[in-house]
Design brief:
The chain has 23 helices and 15 strands. With 586 residues, the chain is α/β, with parallel strands linked by helices. The protein starts with 10 loop residues before the first helix and ends in a 5-residue tail after the last strand.
Length: 586
């Protein structure tokens, strides 16, 4: 069995390492036939965008080694689907200089650090093309422009050390930003002069610097730099053959692509390139078959399927590969939410924490398997996300947390009915909701509850619990485990007592018991019941009392050496409860 390349994003490593590769090489042909001068692919994270760009680089690049000899990369496509492409496509294999950048290194806490990280990425690409310096054909001015960028890292350190005045340092930094704003175009011109061919530019995770800058408070500075970088590289670059840019969102209102009329945007709503990212059903089933896991197909479909790109059904490739790897290597027997560990779920956290009653109702509907309808617009800005709930749902939709069920068009407006794609994503919502609710519970002052328990004031206990339940999501209504865990968590801070759950007493196990630190204080038993209908709550309360008596819970506590015991019955129904108390038992 081939190794599964978890964490690998370099196409050559897949081939050289004989790793399992789901063949997406026809993307090279599709780009030539259906792509624009600049094609922007927006897909959720971990859906194969980085690997796809690595494959495109390997296919198109006229790679030159440091000594100036051309590298033949055709061996990396032996047996691949791309060899069935038209001759005019295959003739372009290994024919172009390629510039490839990833902007993910800009995930830094401040603009200076983020810019310096991007600067280092650009310089590294200059160094990769160092062979151009061996050419005697290049114009001296072109070489000088190249060397000004390439030597920038060491030069910058020396410059900064020589500048003691902060104002001078800031001016020098501004000049450095200006220089690097045109650095990709400069490299394009140098490569075109050397290869005598236009350049292909591949840019991965273009929106990471913007998302990071938004959350860290230097959004405008980063937008200005990325705009200048893209304008020079993708708009006014006569050396450009074509470009492919990838990210999670189409961000245009910030004018990142100002005036770029040669931009073709391909999102999850687009019909073409629908299966270029992610695994389709046949690819998923083939992978399971290759690893003798065909019987796991229903489980994989339930957990990791459900995405709809264009009209094509798509599985989450990262999660499917991780699932298979876990099964084959014996690391994981059961499915788990692999994707939630790789993506930032802060947007769901914000959605849940800021939810008003209408959003709570929508979350209820979604986690229970229902759907909601929202107007969709692809031009999203990070600044706009929180201005309306619809923008927030748009963000969730385009980043993979929701899927399209159907759509309708009213005038120029698109309305999409959406739902949660699968069990994996539902677990992300569920865990975030639980975390939020538990935090709300912990922020509460429990002293009135503890006093009411000691005074056997059942009405106050009811009101206290009812108030907290109003903050919860109805998804948990009816789940006895939720009510059990919720009530147990309320008791952990009660002074002088230790709460126990399902402790064996008498002839059974009461749900919750509070054991005193001092012999003179009573122990407390709580038996919990749940009903679906409000009019059944008295019956549930009586069942709790009957169980306490029939199972001899109170006798069991006394046999353990405690002097007194007081029993409570509690019956929950949705966001309400009734509480009853028995006499002291000694």
């Amino acid at each position: 069995m081939k190794k599964i390349g978890i964490g690998y994003e370099n196409y050559k490593e897949f081939v050289d390492g004989s790793m399992y590769y789901v063949d997406k090489t026809m993307l090279a042909s599709e780009i030539l036939k259906k792509g624009g001068k600049v094609t922007l692919f927006t897909r959720p994270r971990r859906f194969g965008k980085t690997l796809a760009l690595s494959m495109l680089q390997t296919f198109f690049e006229e790679e030159v080694s440091s000594d100036g000899t051309t590298v033949d990369n055709s061996r990396y496509f032996g047996g691949m689907k791309i060899l069935n492409a038209d001759k005019d496509v295959l003739d372009k294999m290994g024919r172009y200089p390629v510039i490839r950048l990833s902007l993910k290194s800009a995930r830094q806490p401040g603009f200076y650090a983020a810019f310096m990280a991007l600067r280092e990425e650009i310089v590294s690409e200059y160094i990769r093309h160092n062979y151009v310096l061996h050419s005697d054909e290049l114009d001296a001015d072109i070489k000088a422009s190249y060397l000004a960028i390439k030597g920038s890292i060491s030069d910058w350190a020396a410059k900064q050390n020589s500048l003691s005045n902060k104002e001078e340092q800031e001016k020098a930094f501004t000049r450095e930003i200006s220089k690097f704003a045109t650095s990709i175009k400069t490299l394009s011109l140098v490569l075109k002069a050397y290869h005598e061919k236009n350049v292909i530019i591949l840019i991965d995770e273009y929106d990471v610097p913007l998302e990071n800058a938004y959350y860290h408070g230097f959004y405008d500075d980063m937008v200005g730099f990325i705009r200048s970088l893209f304008e020079s590289a993708l708009k006014t670059n006569d050396a450009l053959e074509f470009a492919v840019v990838t990210g999670c969102l189409r961000i245009s209102k910030e004018s990142i692509f100002t005036g770029l009329n040669n931009l073709k945007v391909n999102s999850i709503l687009s019909g073409d390139f629908a299966e270029a990212f992610g695994f389709n059903e046949s690819e998923t089933l083939k992978m399971l078959e290759d690893y003798n896991l065909s019987d796991s197909a229903p489980e994989v479909r339930n957990w990791y399927d459900g995405y709809l790109f264009g009209e094509s059904e798509v599985f989450n490739p990262w999660s499917v590969a991780s699932y298979v790897d876990g099964k084959v290597n014996g690391k994981q027997k059961l499915p788990k939410p692999y994707w939630s560990n790789t993506s930032s779920n802060s947007i769901i956290k914000d959605l849940v924490e800021n939810a008003d009653n209408s959003v709570k109702e929508e979350l209820d509907r979604l986690v229970l398997g229902g759907s909601i309808e929202k107007q969709i617009h692809e031009d999203i800005t990070y600044e706009d996300i929180y201005k309306s709930e619809d923008n927030l749902w748009n963000f969730l939709f385009f980043t993979g947390y929701m899927k399209k069920v159907s759509e309708r068009i009213i005038g120029e407006d698109i309305f999409i009915t959406m739902t949660i794609p699968n069990v994996e994503i539902k677990s992300i919502y569920r865990n975030q909701i639980i975390e939020w609710f538990n935090r709300k519970v912990k922020e509460t002052d429990f002293a009135p509850l503890y006093t009411a328990i000691k005074e056997k004031n059942t009405k106050t206990i009811e009101e206290f619990i009812r108030t907290l339940l109003q903050k919860s999501i109805s998804y948990f209504d009816g789940q006895e485990s939720f009510y059990h865990g919720f009530f147990l968590s309320l008791l952990y801070g009660m002074p002088g007592y230790v709460p126990k759950s399902n402790r064996e007493e008498g002839e059974g196990r009461p749900d919750v018991i509070l054991l005193p630190d001092r012999a003179k204080d009573p122990a407390y038993i709580f038996e919990i019941k749940v009903r679906k209908k409000y009019n059944e709550m008295p019956e549930g309360l009586q069942e709790a009392f009957d169980q306490i008596k029939d199972k001899k819970y109170e006798e069991g506590v006394l046999e353990d050496g405690y002097n007194r015991v007081i029993s409570f019955g509690i019956c929950f129904c949705k966001k309400d409860c009734v509480v009853g108390c028995t006499h002291d038992f000694t």
